[in-house]
Amino acid sequence: MAANIAHDIRNPLGSIELFASLLERDLKKNESGQKLTRSIIKGVRTINSIISNILLFTKEIQIEKSEHHVADIVDDVILYMQHLMRDKNIKFINKIDEEHLISCDMELFKQVVMNIVHNAIDAVGTEGKIVMESFSEEKISGFKVTDNGTGIGTDMRKKLFIPFQTTKAKGTGLGLAIVYKIIKAHEGNITVDSDGCSFTSFTIELPIKG
Fold this sequence. Notes:
6 helices
């Protein structure tokens, strides 16, 4: 039922985003018009993200793992979210090794990166900074997302991955719970580090099979 409802909502949303993108292209010399179309696109993508989170939260996750370059996943997500970053003039620093591989379900891990980056965008101020970097150890492969935002307090960090827990006035509290669910389905681990005032880092670790 939820999937059918999501499909019915997403069809017109796709048309709205397409026409808004075409309109943005045609309004190259109209800054106020472009700003309006970017707001429409941002709104559509926010709704799509909420729908994806609800679907992932309400169903059992089934994964189809294969090897993927983290850089490809990150590039797709950043392309999708560039309007949000542009609006706040956020600097995205990509330190992901182009050859870095992880074994994962690519579509699910796009949702992982999207939710974490979305949180970082919300946390940083205008002209903030988000850094992504990859790493490998003997039996672990992963990546880290760090922002220079407001940080997360100790009490909140303890319950950050519990559904419906959020520091945002308008947040659903599902994003990081779904991130946790997806990573655990991959037999991986996620940790968060923050000083509570000036930075937050999410570290995702996945096992290397073999």
